[in-house]
Amino acid sequence: MNSIKRATMADEKQKITLKTVLHEIQEAGTEFSLKFRKADGSISYKQRVKKNPTAPKSAAGGGKLPPKKDLSSIQRNMNHSGALLLFDCIHKQTFECKVRRLVEFNGMSIFHNY
Question: Which of 34, 87, 96, 100 could form a disulfide with 83 if both were Cys (CB 3.0 to 4.6 A apart)?
């Protein structure tokens, strides 16, 4: 019985909060792995991902905004449908991932606490 308990504890993944995940994604140049559910319910895994390197432009002057790491900048980087624009470093292409469908970040299970 004791060996079953140890095996179960070993199988449990470390957890990370969604807020922490969103903040870590904002770190410039940081690569991470990501597991998420697609719209059809299947699971997708991307081994090397980073935030979309295209910086947003200000509406007034057309210039680039300085990078920020606060929650409001995270919200600006998500479109109105609650998705993150990310870059797959292996396939060299951008993709969109819904925040509510994130499952794992760097092998840690994401805790959606809000």
Answer: 96
90 Cβ contact list (under 8 Å, min separation 6):
46, 47, 48
Rounded to an integer, the average pLDDT of 87-96 is 94
Contacts of 24 (CB under 8 A, 6+ apart): 30, 32, 105
Which pLDDT score is estimated for 26? 85
If phi > 0 it is left, if psi is from -120 to 50 it is alpha, else beta; for residue 64 that is: beta
The span from the CA of 113 to the CA of 81, in Å, is: 19
111 closest CA partner among 35, 11, 18, 9: 18
Q: How confident is the model at residue 8 (pLDDT cuts 50, 70, 90)?
A: very low
- Number of neighbours of residue 51 by Cβ within 10 angstroms: 21
In this structure, the strands spanning 15-17 and 108-111 are: parallel
pTM recorded for the entire structure = 0.68
* CA 29 from centre of chain: 13
Range 99-103 average pLDDT: 94
